[in-house]
Specification:
three-stranded mixed β-sheet, 7 strands, alpha+beta, binds zinc ion, 21% strand, 5 helices
Length: 134
């Protein structure tokens, strides 16, 4: 928990118990989770937390740059604590979302296009994952 407190301090976020719990649940899982999945994890030890609280905590963490929201599916948001630039892949068979690192990807280093200053981006790729291909 100590190093989470440091991360919060660096980003100038007040470390309330609920914020710490949400961030920790997401980081420990090290995956892309929906709000409901995060809520389900936290509720085990914090039965009093509400889904609305998890939503608002995620909104704050996102605004402060501590979590990323992934909208690879039309009607669903996923969240993760990996905040460096990377793309995502959705497998149409198992419906899992994967991180994909494309080190040769030009987009990753592009900071200015036709005068537009790029601060963030996400590439969404769709297909069949390695496991489902077999
Ligand atoms: Zn798959
Ligand atoms: Zn990711």
């Amino acid at each position: 928990m100590n190093n989470i407190l440091t991360i919060f301090k660096e980003k100038d976020i007040r470390a309330t118990t609920q914020r710490l719990e949400v961030y920790k649940a997401l980081r420990d899982e090290n995956k892309h989770l929906t709000v409901e999945q995060i809520y389900g994890k936290i509720r085990v030890n914090n039965p009093s937390i509400s889904l609305a609280t998890v939503y608002s905590v995620l909104e704050i963490l996102k605004r402060k740059g501590l979590v990323k929201e992934i909208r690879i599916e039309f009607n669903k948001s996923f969240f993760e604590t990996r905040i460096d630039a990377h793309h995502h892949f959705l497998c149409k068979k198992c419906q899992k979302t994967f991180d994909i690192d494309m080190h040769h990807c030009r987009v990753l280093t592009e900071q200015n296009v036709n005068g537009f200053q790029i601060e963030d981006f996400q590439g969404y790729f769709y297909g069949v994952c390695n496991k489902c291909k077999k």
